[in-house]
Amino acid sequence: MKINKLMLSQRLGKQLRCARTVASEIITALSDIMLEEIYLGNDISLGALGSLKLREIKKRNGVNPSTGERIIIPASLRVKLNESKLLRKVLSDRLNKQKRSH
């Protein structure tokens, strides 16, 4: 299931005991701040989730799958989530639970 901003703001509003509109404004402000910090090249620690880090991907050789033509894929920037130990454990536990249920 995909959680959208409306659903997230409803859950946040309930947890913080505030109106959904206030929670939505908080989410928007947080997103804006995070975008600015990533743009500036700063890492963002997200507590139990881990941290977001800006990574530079160097230019590399590639092949156009349609034509087979060799191409150069230009350098780019990506944001990477470095998972926390807790998040890795949660994911591992979920995978193990799924394996047991099959």
Q: What does this protein look like?
A:
The chain is α+β, with helices and mostly antiparallel strands. The chain has two domains: 1-42, no CATH class; 45-102, IHF-like DNA-binding proteins (HU Protein, Chain A). Helices cover 48% and strands 25% of the residues. It has helices at residues 5-16, 20-39, 85-101; strands at 44-45, 50-57, 60-63, 70-73, 76-83. Strand 3 (60-63) and strand 4 form a beta hairpin. The model has no long low-confidence stretch (mean pLDDT 95).
List the helices and strands and how they pair.
Layout: H1 5-16, H2 20-39, E1 44-45, E2 50-57, E3 60-63, E4 70-73, E5 76-83, H3 85-101
Antiparallel strand pairs: 1-2, 2-5, 3-4
Helix pairs in contact: 1-2
In a few lines, what is going on in this structure?
Helices cover 48% and strands 25% of the residues. The chain is of the alpha+beta class and 102 residues long. It folds into two domains: 42 residues, no CATH class; 58 residues, Irregular (HU Protein, Chain A).
